[in-house]
Design a protein that fits this description.
By secondary structure, the protein is α/β, with parallel strands linked by helices. It has 14 helices and 14 strands.
């Protein structure tokens, strides 16, 4: 089976839109959560979000196209172009049929749907945009990226709520492992910080309402956690067949070595509380990558800052690695700093996994002040930690009971 490595990465995030600057903020434990500025939150229970910071779309998407395109696609195109540039690839030297795009989004063009529904109600069906459907659907961003980069290989979108980017990365990895492609662009994009998106999650009572202290609102695994913080952004990774990358002298961040999937088959939003469903995915990922529990130095958790998720995920890690190995393994949640990018979360968190391996640094879980007896692992509290990182697991859990786990190795 072919080996798959990561050779390029690009981010659009609440902690900035330049890869190394983003990583510096992560290592420093900075928060990208603040008050929502995109709309009036007077009537909303949650008024906070991880809005994208420092993003200029103009170098990536012409202004005329921006006016017709959903924001999630703009984010995804920009992150893809950043990743492509970082990889040093030149498509004029590649077979375009052996390069593809698999980009996940949990919600897709929600802002387009919201805006066009308003037009329908106020002005009638004749005033709806002909671009409504093509720019609303969850697969269109991947199509747009392929058009921009000239990639004619496999192209589709995995949609599995907050596991979307993890499933997309898995499928992209499989395309290379099977020999179908040499290069895949993969990750996720999301732009759900809008009136309809926030209203829907508020109605679920899933969002944190710590509106007077946004920077400390997202606090995974802490006893005082009270819900997740919604966030926007995108992260894309260039996956490449190992020998292909070596032959062109590409820099290699790490190896994407395996993946595991499962379903709780339990509830549409709540995880199975014993962690058994998520543990299956963790075990499968290790087996697929040829890793044992003692080979795992760091786990990048789903870590949403909700009561059920964090307790369940802790239980899953113990079930998968065994109690002793679980307690020796560092676990942290990027969502403590960025909030939850929904379908794009695993893309951004996979970037962090690759950089953690490259630099030998386990990023922190910030806002961890009050231990919870039900969450009793090493969550790298508040400060990053220098250490050797050889094997990494990236955990993702989505509404519907969708569990996905990615396994990374040092090359």
């Amino acid at each position: 089976m072919k080996r798959v490595v990561i050779t390029g990465m690009g981010v659009v995030s609440p902690l900035g839109c330049e890869l190394e600057g983003f990583w510096e903020s992560v290592k420093a434990g900075k928060s990208g959560v603040g008050m929502i500025t995109k709309f009036d939150t007077t009537d909303y229970a949650s008024k906070i979000a991880g809005e994208v910071s420092g993003f200029d779309p103009d170098p990536y998407v012409p202004k005329k196209e921006q006016r017709r395109m959903d924001e999630y696609s703009i984010f995804g195109i920009a992150a893809s172009k950043k990743a492509f540039e970082d990889s040093g690839l030149d498509m004029s030297k590649e077979d375009p049929t052996r390069a593809g795009v698999i980009l996940g989004s949990g919600v897709g063009g929600l802002q387009t749907l919201e805006a066009q529904h308003k037009i329908l109600l106020e002005k009638g069906p004749g005033k709806c945009s002909p671009f409504m459907i093509p720019h609303m659907i969850s697969n269109i961003c991947g199509g747009l990226v392929a058009i921009e980069l000239g990639m004619q290989g496999p192209n589709y979108s995995a949609v599995s709520a907050c596991a979307s980017a993890a499933h997309s990365l898995t499928n992209a990895m499989r395309c290379i492992q099977s020999g179908e492609t040499d290069i895949m662009m993969s990750g996720g994009a999301e732009a759900s910080v809008c009136t309809l998106g926030v209203a829907g999650f508020c109605a679920l009572r899933a969002l944190c309402t710590r509106n007077d202290d946004p920077e400390h609102a997202s606090r995974p695994f802490d006893a005082d956690r009270s819900g997740f913080v919604i966030a926007d952004g995108a992260a894309m990774l260039v996956l490449e067949e190992y020998e292909h990358a070596v032959a062109r002298g590409a820099k290699i961040y790490c190896e994407l070595a395996g993946a595991g999937h499962s379903c709780d088959a339990y509830h549409i939003t709540a995880p199975a509380e014993d962690g058994s469903g998520a543990a299956i995915a963790l075990k499968k990922a290790m087996a697929d990558a040829g890793l044992n529990p003692e080979d795992i130095d760091y786990i990048n958790a789903h870590g949403t800052s909700t009561q059920l998720n964090d307790k369940t995920e802790t239980a899953a890690i113990k079930l998968a690695l065994g109690e002793d190995n679980a307690r020796k393994t560092c676990v942290s949640s990027l969502k403590s700093m960025t909030g939850h990018l929904l379908g794009a979360a695993a893309g951004l968190e996979s970037v962090v996994c690759a950089l953690a391996i490259r630099d030998g640094i386990a990023p922190p879980t910030i806002n961890y002040t009050t231990p919870d007896p039900a969450c009793d692992l090493d969550y790298v509290p508040n400060e990053s930690r220098e250490m050797e990182i050889r094997g990494v697991l990236k955990n993702s859990l989505g509404f519907g009971g969708h569990n996905a786990c990615l396994a990374f190795k040092k090359v």
